[in-house]
Amino acid sequence: MGNKADLRGTAIGRFQPFHNGHLVLIKQILEDCSEALIVVGSAQLNYTMANPFTAGERVFMIHKALKDGGFDLSKILIIPLVDEENNAKWFSALASMLPPFNIMYSGNDLVIALASQHLEVRPPRFERRKEFNGSYIRNRILNGQKWSDLVSRSVFEIINNIDGVNRVKTLAKYELERTKLYGS
Q1: Mean pLDDT to the nearest integer, 115-122
Q2: Is 102 exposed, middle or buried (0-12, 13-18, 19+ CB in 10 A)?
Q3: pLDDT value at 127 more than 90
Q4: How far is Cα 162 from Cα 64, in angstroms, rounded to an integer?
Q5: DSSP readout, 83-96?
């Protein structure tokens, strides 16, 4: 595909929250490529149990985790992006909103199917996939279980500073009450 200097890799995720598995992924991208694009997907979604954090909060979490992790931020762009609902147009919409990129890193079957028609898609190196999972972390937050070891210290501090633990608990309660009233 070319040498590392010619490659820009991208990773797309909701990052709800940005966890230590994501740090491993960004390290992988920068081992293979000269630059990494981190796309904060579903940027329009927030204040739900599945998406409790705003795009701005997620960008801040990512930036701080990478900075505190010693990453060279001059090689990383963090870009929030609103969802394209039409899957047939998804890749062209994505490509129009990002700087040029050569490789996408994804373990999502739909993303792989849509993107592999246009460029190389590489699988991430998953570590502790069960624990390094946004749903798992949000459920641990909800249930008052330890989760601080699953995210960087800076992400943990940001979530606490924005009262994210209470937010997750409030959102879960709201969604449970709504389900009881209106069904799924």
Answers
A1: 94
A2: middle
A3: no
A4: 14
A5: --S-HHHHHHHHHH
